[in-house]
């Protein structure tokens, strides 16, 4: 691993030297990008995750200088996946950068995917309120791209965390809506009773006797 890190440091020094020198037609950014990419890969092989993440961020900056936003977004995502092993906050920051760039170039499916990843990181960090915010962003984008199964997976997470935070009306609304959507789907209809059960439990937790009675009548499946 030490050999890989030494190689990575050498690639990184060469990349920095390229950036500080002169070049015709901006090719120094392309040359530096190639070297930063090699540096990041070598850092990964050496399991030096923070240095790998930092190298990918430098790679992203080179792509931005070359007006290659798609490649820059991918580099930020690669940085995030390295930082995920050591620094959740830095990972989230890089994923945010990737999302913003993918949104700018109309790659909504990729943006949704990385919003979901951010939500999972907040979930891992036990920050349920922020996890809800990003699962909602992901669900909205997945729905706009007609990826409804994944959208509903995100919405189930929102309902779960909302109930944990005692936001019972929000959780009930989501569980009932997913149940309605699932009724006419041959693959999903078997999960309807489970969604209504979760909604019913939230009704019980809310403690509104009239609402519970009305819900029992509505939940006849």
Give the secondary structure arrangement, pairings included.
Blueprint: H1 2-20, H2 27-45, H3 49-65, H4 69-83, H5 88-104, H6 108-124, H7 128-144, H8 148-164, H9 168-183, H10 192-206, H11 209-218
Helix pairs in contact: 1-2, 2-3, 3-4, 4-5, 5-6, 6-7, 7-8, 8-9, 9-10
What does this structure look like?
The structure is a single chain. This protein is mostly helical and 221 residues long. It has a domain of 106 residues: Tetratricopeptide repeat domain (Serine Threonine Protein Phosphatase 5, Tetratricopeptide repeat). 81% of the residues lie in helices and 0% in strands. It has eleven helices and no strands. The relative contact order is 0.06.
Helix content: over 70%
Could you tell me the strand content as a percent range?
under 5%
User: Biggest β-sheet, characterized?
Assistant: none
CATH class of the domain at 1-106: Mainly Alpha
- The helix-strand sequence is HHHHHHHHHHH
Instruction: Tell me the Rg in angstroms.
Output: 23 Å
Per CATH, the superfamily of the domain at 1-106 is Tetratricopeptide repeat domain
CATH architecture grouping of the domain at 1-106: Alpha Horseshoe
Number of strands: 0
The quaternary state of the protein chains shown equals single chain
Spans of 5+ residues with little confidence (pLDDT < 50)? none
Query: Alpha-carbon distance between the termini?
Result: 60 Å
CATH topology of the domain at 1-106: Serine Threonine Protein Phosphatase 5, Tetratricopeptide repeat
Q: How many DSSP helices? A: 11
Mean of the pLDDT scores?
90
What spatial form do the alpha-carbon principal axes imply?
A: elongated
Class by SSE composition? mainly alpha
